[in-house]
Recover the amino acids of this structure.
């Protein structure tokens, strides 16, 4: 049941919008700009984890790092 629902959510994602966000993030990184992630309540933990994933995981072994701040 979970995998079926997950599949439905993933297939419903507008990939062109996801690509736009990826390009905006890359442009921010290339221009040494900061990316701010915001969350409230339970979403605060998600925002914090997302900031770490982008700032560390996506920057691993790259010449430029993402500068990400979680406002939680």
């Amino acid at each position: 049941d979970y995998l079926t629902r997950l599949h439905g959510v993933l297939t419903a994602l507008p990939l062109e919008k996801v690509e736009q966000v990826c390009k905006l993030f890359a442009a921010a990184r290339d221009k040494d700009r900061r990316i701010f992630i915001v969350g409230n309540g339970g979403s605060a933990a998600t925002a914090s984890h997302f900031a770490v994933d982008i700032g560390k995981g996506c920057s691993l072994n790259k010449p430029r790092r993402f500068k990400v701040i979680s406002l939680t």
